[in-house]
């Protein structure tokens, strides 16, 4: 089985996220938007689920692994919906120019989040499609979590200093953390290129995110489109996220069915 100790690396994201999001979310938990709660809870549960699945299969708890895997079908749509609700919340702050940080970076971060959300949908579809191929399935499950490195690592420096993200240095932190995510994806791909396509995909998308953060995410056309997202009803955004998650599950499950053998007839 690949990545015998992956669960420890995944669980290490929790203390890092606690430090990164302490100033802007954890310390203001009661006053934070509901979208942040949905995203925070579902993302945490998803990390824990993938970590548990890694642990269970490496400890030969196959039946438990399958049961929890089926349970992921109930969680994944809410995980996707939580991510889309955060995008909607960021769009609202950007459209209203709620604060200098949102006005400067809202659309650019929204561009990155939209790309990662779409990619996560595809990667989970592929994880289900290749569920019978251990090496591919494991990598398609782990690879999406590399998208968490940028939002976590990019916020740790300001969290350890003033506690509030300053403007220009934050852009540097985003690019550096994207560089780390890209490097990790490249290393994991090069360790096993035969099965490394999931990490190749994530590395490519992270590179596009970095480029888009500097270019497309700053264009007037994207800013206009992103601000328009704020006008959508919250219920519609949540429903779209749930539907997209369910569609990825259904399509992946169907695509991964074992081929039926033709019955020979006399």
Q: How does the overall form come out from the CA principal axes?
A: globular
Q: How widely separated are the two ends? A: 43 Å
Q: What low-confidence regions span 5 or more consecutive residues with pLDDT below 50?
A: 262-266
Helical content (DSSP H or I, runs of 4+): over 70%
Order of helices and strands: HHHHHHHHHHHH
What class do helices, strands and sheet pairing give? mainly alpha
Rg of Cα set? 19 Å
**Proportion in β-strands:** under 5%
| Number of domain units | 1
Instruction: Count up the helices.
Output: 12
Global mean pLDDT:
91
Key terms for this structure?
266 residues, 0% strand, globular
Structure notes:
- The chain is an all-alpha fold.
- The protein is 74% helix and 0% strand.
- It is built from 12 helices and no strands.
- The termini are far apart.
- 38% of the residues are buried.
Write the layout of secondary structure elements.
Blueprint lengths: L5 H6 L1 H8 L13 H25 L3 H34 L4 H30 L4 H9 L6 H5 L2 H5 L6 H25 L5 H18 L5 H10 L4 H22 L11
Short note summarizing the structure:
The protein is mainly α. It has helices spanning 6-11, 13-20, 34-58, 62-95, 100-129, 134-142, 149-153, 156-160, 167-191, 197-214, 220-229, 234-255.
């Amino acid at each position: 089985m690949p990545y015998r100790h992956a669960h420890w690396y995944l669980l290490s994201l929790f203390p890092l996220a606690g430090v990164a999001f302490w100033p802007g979310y954890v310390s203001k938990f009661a006053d934070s938007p509901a979208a942040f709660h949905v995203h925070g809870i579902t993302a945490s549960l998803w990390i824990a689920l993938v970590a548990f699945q890694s642990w269970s299969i490496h400890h030969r708890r196959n039946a438990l692994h399958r049961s929890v895997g089926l349970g992921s079908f109930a969680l994944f749509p809410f995980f996707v919906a939580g991510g889309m609700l955060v995008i909607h919340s960021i769009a609202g702050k950007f459209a209203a120019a709620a604060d200098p940080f949102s006005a400067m970076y809202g659309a650019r971060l929204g561009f990155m989040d939209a790309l990662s959300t779409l990619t996560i949908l595809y990667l989970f579809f592929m994880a289900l499609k290749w569920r019978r191929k251990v090496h591919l399935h494991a990598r398609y499950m782990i690879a999406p979590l590399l998208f968490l490195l940028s939002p976590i690592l990019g916020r740790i420096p300001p969290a350890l200093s003033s506690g509030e993200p300053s403007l220009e240095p934050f852009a540097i932190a985003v690019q550096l953390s994207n560089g780390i995510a890209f490097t990790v994806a490249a290393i994991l791909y090069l360790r096993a290129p035969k099965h490394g396509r999931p990490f190749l995909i994530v590395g490519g998308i992270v590179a596009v995110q970095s480029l888009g953060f500097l270019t497309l995410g700053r264009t007037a056309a994207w800013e206009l489109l992103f601000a328009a997202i704020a006008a959508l009803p919250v219920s519609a955004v949540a429903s779209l996220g749930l539907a997209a998650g369910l569609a990825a599950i259904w399509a992946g499950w169907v695509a991964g069915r074992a081929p039926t053998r033709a019955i020979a007839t006399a």
